[in-house]
Design a protein that fits this description.
This protein has about 260 residues and is α/β, with parallel strands linked by helices. Helices cover about 30% and strands about 25% of the residues. The mean pLDDT is about 95.
């Protein structure tokens, strides 16, 4: 379990509780998302890449075809088990370990990625470790994608229902904005690129229900009873407001830090 007073008012959450849904419904990044990474010359062509908070290995699995070698680490045994299952035969290495405890040799990696997880880390502890294990001029690439509730009515309705069952959830109310990089990274790193852009992601009622269920505010934190009650109400809501197939407006963001 993870508990942080700055996240969900300290309500504990555990991604391992929702690993099945995470594996089925959160591999949703469009091709444009990955092309933005390749356009920066990252995660390809023989580079050695470490993916922090890898979850079910979404980023390594999607990008292994571009010629990098990957290591994924995550605090959750259940998430890593799903990653290994879904990555079979792809040559991706996975370790179950908190990001703060990684211990690779100096200068091991060309790139370190962190997608949907950067704010969970103890940055005062980890930023020096990341600097040490990166090669000279190596990169940290922070990635993020979120629905936009103030611009998309289906996202707004689903988000309101999350808050009904979990008013402590602090993930609500996203607007397009640059990724916040903690001040400690000014020691040893330079922010050399950031980008934010809107995109649409296709869903069915089933896959959108699964995607929302696999968020921190529902599947990773609520009791089984409350999850079931939420899901029953959410499915009924989607029957009323959404066609069988639809798109949800999101925004994506990246921040690229160079080791100096």
């Amino acid at each position: 379990m993870i508990s942080d007073e700055s996240i969900d008012h300290g309500v504990p959450f555990d991604w391992g509780r929702v690993s099945d849904e995470y594996a089925r419904y959160r591999d949703i990044y469009p091709a444009r998302f990955y092309q933005k990474i390749l356009d920066r010359g990252l995660c390809c062509d023989g580079q050695h890449v470490l993916d922090l908070g890898t979850g079910t290995g979404v980023i390594p699995r999607a990008m292994a075809r571009y010629g990098a070698t990957w290591v994924g680490v995550d605090i959750s045994e259940q998430q890593i088990a799903q990653a290994r299952r879904l990555s079979e035969g792809m040559g991706i290495e996975y370790q179950t370990i908190p990001a703060e405890h990684i211990d690779f040799p100096d200068g091991t990696f060309d790139v370190i990625t962190a997608c949907q997880c950067f704010w969970y880390f103890d940055h005062e502890t980890i930023h020096g470790i990341l600097h040490r294990i990166l090669k000279p001029n190596g990169r940290i690439l922070v990635l993020y994608m979120a629905w936009l509730p103030f611009e998309d009515p289906i996202a707004d309705a689903s988000e309101r229902l999350i808050l009904k069952y979990n008013p402590n959830w602090s993930g609500a109310g996203e607007r397009m904005r640059p990724i916040d990089i903690p001040a400690c990274y000014a020691d040893g790193f330079a922010l050399i690129h950031h980008e934010e852009y809107k995109l649409t992601v296709p869903f069915t009622r089933e896959s959108w229900n699964g995607r929302v269920k696999a968020c921190r505010g529902i599947g990773a934190s609520l009791s089984a009873h409350d999850i079931a009650a939420w899901e029953q109400e959410h499915k009924a809501l989607l029957e009323r407001i959404a066609p069988e197939r639809f798109e949800v407006l999101h925004y994506a963001a990246m921040a690229e830090l160079k080791r100096i």
